[in-house]
Amino acid sequence: MNFAAKALRRAFFATLVASAGVAGAVQQEVVASRLDHPWAVAFLPEGRFLVTERPGRMRIVDADGRVGAPLVGVPTVAARGQGGLLDVVLDSAFAGNRTVYFCYAEPGDGGNSTALARAKLSADATRLDEVKVIFRQLPKVDSSYHFGCRIVEAQDGTLFLTMGERNSRRDDAQRLANHIGKMVRITKDGAVPPDNPFVGRSGAAPEIWSYGHRNMQGATLGPDGRVWTHEHGPQGGDEINVPLPGRNYGWPVITHGEQYGGGKMGEGSAKAGMEQPLHYWVPSIAPSGMAFLTSDRYGADLKGDLFVGSLKFGYVARLELENGKVRRETKWAEIGDRVRDVRQGPDGWLYVLTDEGNGKLIRLKP
Ligand SMILES: [Ca+2]
């Protein structure tokens, strides 16, 4: 986007903020820049950051913002379109086991698909050791769209992975024999937890937790202990869900969006046996990244709120919740570039990544 367009958008946003009566702008501290389409950030000990870059590199950013050389050991990724090296998270016991999980577009017979790998970060933090793919989405499809690819470790130590429907295979999101348009739950070794909802059902992939999803690029563990997700709708109809085991989230049969260019999509917005989203956006904001604010850094008013990045409009949305529902949504921080990831650091600050050729890691302060 050129400077004039950015200035226009900033002016537009300033008007919105003024009309909403929001007091005080959010300060942006650029921690690091010149990252190549960064997709995810995880927080290492001693104030360092582990960042993925979509073309297939993982780097460490020092507390002072110095960007390190690419780590050795990242597998080959299908870096085309929306594909590449995507999410990364630390094991909850990282301090003792140096284990990380990451997901990416894995090339293979038939095209590519989302794969989840486990590895150990070497003691000198220069390479990934013992890299092992513990889950891969099947089938692989010749597509450069809709990989999903957010990882969450649940309180019981199982891993959730979100996956898209590859755009060209949307009807497969309603079929249980594949991993297209699904969220799966596996153990840290890639095994199927015996209490998964479709274990023992003939013709169903036992890793599936929930289905009928389009493209989920945000997932986080809520303070309620459940996994919260969001996903892109078609034209309109981006959603927040808290997927329950075995439930059908409707895509492509129901949506609050419409066909690109206009026109009804599927069977409308509701159907028996299909879940309604907890919240939806019309028009779409193209959400990516999400985090609950649990720290006291921003004052009592913001604590407990949910923050979601917008790729399309370049801001961070704040969603205030009440009894598990979204009571109010506001544009909280105007970033100006595509917001790819939103996380709370161990220092209690919120951080974002911008998905640009000169991508930035930014710390947000009130
Ligand atoms: Ca839905």
UniProtKB/TrEMBL annotation:
Positions of the Glucose/Sorbosone dehydrogenase domain: 35-363
Pfam families according to UniProt: GSDH
UniProt keyword annotation of Nucleotide-binding present: no
Cleaved signal peptide residues: 1-25
Keyword annotations of the record: Signal
Entry annotated with the keyword DNA-binding: no
SUPFAM superfamilies linked to this entry: Soluble quinoprotein glucose dehydrogenase
PANTHER family found in the cross-reference section: ALDOSE SUGAR DEHYDROGENASE YLII, HEDGEHOG-INTERACTING PROTEIN
Name of the protein described by the UniProt record: PQQ-dependent sugar dehydrogenase
Species the sequence originates in: Ramlibacter albus
